[in-house]
C-alpha cells in the first residue's frame, strides 16, 4: 500500500507558475555592427547563465505589443508588419522576472562588462505598448538623465 502512495506522489504534476522569464533584445545583433554583436553575445550568455530565455526582436515585429513578446495570455502579434522608423539604440525588455532575477541580471551584466543602457521591465502599464513605442520612450528617458 505504501508503494502506491509513493507512485501517486511521484506522478503528481506541477502547474507552471506563469509565463517563462524572457529578455527581449533590440540593437544587439550583427545588423547593428560588430560591437553590438559582441555585446549582444555577452548579454545572451549572462541571460543563459541565469536561465532566462533571450529573444531578439525582429524589425517587422516592432509593432507587436510588449505583452506578446513576453508570452502573456491574450496578447497576439500585430496584424501587419511594422513599417515605422527603426530605433537606433540598444535595448533590453525584461519580462516575467522576479526582483531577484532583475538584480542578478544587472549585477552579472556589470561583472561581464556588457551593461545595456536603455532597458525596461514589463509592467501592467507598458505591456500593451507596441515595442517600438516602448523602446523610444525608454531611450528618450535614458538620454534625458544626467550623466
Plain-language structure description:
By secondary structure, this protein is an alpha/beta fold. Helix content is 41%, strand content 12%. The protein has helices at 2-11, 34-50, 66-70, 99-112, 131-144; strands at residues 22-26, 53-56, 91-95, 119-121. A four-stranded mixed β-sheet has the order 2-1-3-4, with helices on both faces. Strand 3 (91-95), helix 4 and strand 4 form a beta-alpha-beta unit.
Q: What string gives the helices and strands in order?
A: HEHEHEHEH
How many strands, which pairing sense, and closed or not: the largest β-sheet?
A: 4 strands, mixed
Total beta-strand segments: 4
Q: How large is the count of helical segments?
A: 5
Average pLDDT rating: 90
The low-pLDDT segments are none
Indicate the multimeric state: single chain
Gyration radius, in Å? 18 Å
Report strand order across the widest sheet. 2-1-3-4
Q: What distance lies between the first and last C-alpha atoms, to the nearest angstrom?
A: 69 Å
Shape: globular
Helix content: 40-55%
Brief account:
The chain is α/β, with parallel strands linked by helices and 147 residues long. The protein has helices at 2-11, 34-50, 66-70, 99-112, 131-144; strands at 22-26, 53-56, 91-95, 119-121. The longest helix has 17 residues, at 34-50.
